[in-house]
Protein-glutamate methylesterase/protein-glutamine glutaminase
Amino acid sequence: MVVKPIRVLVVDDSALVRKILSEILGQAPGIQVVGTAQDPYVARERIKELNPDVLTLDVEMPRMDGLTFLRNLMRLRPMPVVMVSSLTERGAEVTLHALELGAVDFVRKPDRDLAYGIQDYGRDLVDKVRTAAGVKVRPLSDRAASPQTAAAGTSIPKRVISSFRTTDRIIAIGASTGGTEAIKEVLLSLPVDTPGVVIAQHIPPGFSRAFAERMNRQTGLVVKEAAEGDRVMPGHAYIAPGDDHLLVVRDGARYTCRLSRGEPVNRHRPSVDVLFRSVAQSAGRNACAALLTGMGADGAEGLKELRALGVHTIVQDEASSVVWGMPGEAVRRDAAVEILPIGEVAGALLKGTAEQRSR
């Protein structure tokens, strides 16, 4: 049986970036770069002509910006897209919006220092393109396409929560590819007095802060990028910084956040396994945990350790996941008490923490 190569179209206004991406992808087994385009207008014609399986798309380009092109593409011809983003505050915000519009994932834009990490960069790019090729992209919904979405910065009123309160229960969430939108859906469904939430999402430095600020604007919780020594309080969610492991430690009657620059685990820092194991050690059965969409296996073993302690563990189901790698691996390891669509995860987490407290 002959396996057809993944056909990729590279769209970027920089000739150097087009060359670098094309060379990396062209050397990868099973991937064929069928063409390049310097702007969305050329890309539109190349898509019609070449029928690629995956698009890499620069977030900011002349003549038509990447978001406008992506929005039109997801309405008229949905296809897997991997965004190529600069590591800037503006780049992070635009990229997170692109994920809301339906982009599968993103990589940083290659720069002059790439030579020092070309192998890691290339592996990351190739992995994400291969993963994107297997994703069934859904058409852009009217709500996501609307300029009145919360992405525009609309704030949701929050209840003032006393800083003197603590929590004897805790919710832990892990995710990777597709996780920013899955996490948002969970946080939107949690009440403002929910137990403290700790989150490990595979995300680069800089993007984690932008993601936390975005969730703080769009949900009813107080959401922040975790800092060393933060107290885990009800109504608050703490997102692991992009290049730090997030751990939860017990400090008397309180849980606090601890950050670590330890070695990557499962190729990731932050690692979901590191977070889940710290929650197992510090909170035990006072916790409830969910493993959401993502490629790889990070978090599966940590979730299994939590379940072994009697913790209520949840994984996102395959149908609602962008990539069923991490949650699927957790299911294979018998780490999940429940397998649920993303719309039911928040309710199950609340139920799980209530049951643990009653015990």
In short: The first strand starts at residue 6 and ends at 11. The domain at 6-145 is CATH 3.40.50.2300 (Rossmann fold). Residues 156 and 356 are 30 Å apart (CA to CA).
